[in-house]
Automatic annotation (TrEMBL):
Protein location: Cell membrane
GO MF terms held by the record: metalloendopeptidase activity; zinc ion binding
Official protein name in the record: Protease HtpX homolog
Family: Belongs to the peptidase M48B family.
Residues at the active site: 142
GO biological processes: proteolysis
Pfam families noted in UniProt: Peptidase_M48 (PF01435)
UniProt remark on cofactor binding: Binds 1 zinc ion per subunit.
Annotated TM spans: 12-33, 39-57, 151-172, 192-213
EC number: 3.4.24.-
Organism: Nocardiopsis kunsanensis
Membrane-related topology note: Multi-pass membrane protein
Requisite cofactors: Zn(2+)
């Protein structure tokens, strides 16, 4: 967001540009691959464009609906709005919409494809567990995602994975149906089952590449948001404390609730996983290790001359 007082991060900007360029290349190869597999080019373009438009313009509504979150007014949540108002004034940025999700999973996220559609959402579990300064630090972290525009980039980057995943599943079902029906191609083309399997192969490769690219960006953007929030509030120890509380309490949340929230891990302040989940390979992790985030915040505390 132009003019924001959140510290700019050239590393994040470089990674966002690189990710978008690489995803564009993957997107072009994806379309070419589907056409080469035998699909009608106009069908491919219309399908991809439809998914892209829906994902881009409805990202905030989809996220809020999936999390069971509702937008709240200053009258409904005066304390929460007061925190957001204060931080937006400090950061010199426009205030996003504010939402609350009624779930015990302690977390927060920001979403939206533009400044006007941006929304920041916290869960009731988060508000209940954190002290005022800790909650303020988490909200500052989420606001920095909006200010840095990485929420928009993640939204755009994620749509290719959605399209590729859909086509992979559809292609597998079609291939199974064609095989069971004994479908054969005519003299001018391959059998439908062969075309379907080629679509599956192309889609799977595109999905894997987009998955790895967005996960790499996701890990870095969390470190950038930690840094920006710590410098804005001047209290990195509060963000570190909130992070420790949230990740520590994840082990106490029912597995069913964690699984419901898990699809949104890339947008959460902390991944909805129990402690054993943090041993996953860093190649596919949505967030950097908690120890790394806490260590970075401790270094910022030393730079600011604070005790940690």
């Amino acid at each position: 967001m132009a003019g924001s007082k959140f510290r700019p991060d050239s590393g994040l900007t470089t990674r966002m540009v690189l990710t978008m360029v690489l995803l564009f290349v993957v997107y072009v190869l994806f379309v070419v691959g589907l056409v080469a597999a035998g699909l009608n080019i106009w069908l491919v373009l219309v399908l991809v464009a439809a998914f892209a438009a829906f994902s881009y313009f409805s990202s905030d509504k989809i996220a809020m609906f999936a999390m069971g979150a509702k937008e709240v007014s200053p009258q409904q949540a005066p304390d929460l709005h007061a925190v957001v108002d204060r931080l937006c004034a400090m950061a010199d940025m426009s205030k996003p919409r504010v939402g609350i999700a009624d779930t015990d999973v302690p977390n927060a996220f920001a979403t939206g494809h533009s400044e006007k559609s941006a929304v920041i959402c916290v869960t009731t579990g988060l508000v209940r567990r954190l002290e005022g300064p800790e909650l303020e630090a988490v909200i500052a972290h989420e606001l920095s995602h909006i200010a840095h525009r990485d929420v928009m980039v993640m939204t755009i980057a994620g749509f290719l994975g959605i399209v590729a995943g859909f086509l992979t599943q559809a292609g597998l079902r079609f291939a199974m149906f064609s095989g069971m029906a004994g479908g054969r191609g005519n003299n001018n083309g391959p059998a439908p089952a062969v075309v379907a399997l080629l679509v599956v192969l192309v889609s799977a490769v595109a999905w894997a590449l987009s998955f790895l690219l967005t996960r790499a960006l996701s890990r870095y953007r969390e470190l950038a948001a930690d840094r920006a929030a710590a410098y804005l509030t001047g209290r990195p120890s509060m963000l570190s404390s909130a992070l420790s509380k949230i990740t520590g309490d994840m082990a106490r949340i029912p597995t069913r609730d964690l699984r419901q929230a898990e699809p949104f891990n890339a947008f959460f302040f902390a991944p909805a996983l129990s402690e054993k989940g943090f041993s996953f390979s860093q190649l596919i992790a949505t967030h950097p290790p908690v120890q790394q985030r806490v260590s970075r915040l401790a270094e910022i505390s030393r730079q600011l001359g604070q005790g940690h």
